[in-house]
């Protein structure tokens, strides 16, 4: 419920849900897969809210980014399933640290990148040079692989990539980011289901909790200062990182 509420207000719900699964005895790789399944429905539901913004996108760019997101998400999930549990355990603190740092500083980095692009790359609206377009597609593929493997902070990474593509409208960027994340996680979910990696009792319980928490979080979002929620998420992220580095 708390993860769903955090995702509806400021993001970062996985800093709660993933460690909780590990704390309750779910093996780390299975915990990562179960967490992806549990939080994916909320991501898909969010796409419907962006119908207008998505209809305004460059269709060629959307198709290209969706395709590499599908391939990358499936590749990342396959890579996770081929990773030995002990190796993934060793990677957990580093993955959490990277995700926490992205959550903490990613917004400023994205804003600076967007400003740099606006100042340095003067081009006609809606037209992306071929080389830059290819760079954005490659970047999205790498983000999708990471998303299928672990996923913490992919929203920030995608916003940076879309800024590189010349997008400046934050609503359009969030719409496309949400769509791409749904495809990335959707392919990972499909692969995890086929492989039998998911702990279904925990997943079902988390899905119900995330829906309740997401609805409640959305209802109270206007009464809560997102700044304080972000600080809480950042604190949890660093606390979980410290725990997995030094105490586990």
Q: What does it look like?
A:
The protein is mainly α. The chain has one domain. It contains 11 helices and no strands. The protein has helices at residues 2-9, 14-23, 28-47, 51-55, 59-81, 85-120, 130-149, 154-164, 170-195, 200-220, 226-247.
Describe, in short, the structure shown:
It contains 11 helices and no strands.
Write the layout of secondary structure elements.
Blueprint: H1 2-9, H2 14-23, H3 28-47, H4 51-55, H5 59-81, H6 85-120, H7 130-149, H8 154-164, H9 170-195, H10 200-220, H11 226-247
Helix pairs in contact: 1-10, 2-3, 3-9, 3-10, 5-7, 5-9, 6-8, 6-11, 7-8, 7-9, 8-9
Which key phrases capture this entry?
mainly alpha; 248 residues; 0% strand
- What is the structural class? mainly alpha
Cα separation of the termini: 25 Å
Helix and strand run: HHHHHHHHHHH
Question: Tally of extended strands?
Answer: 0
What would the average pLDDT be, to the nearest integer? 83
Number of helices: 11
The low-confidence runs, each spanning 5 or more residues with pLDDT under 50, are none
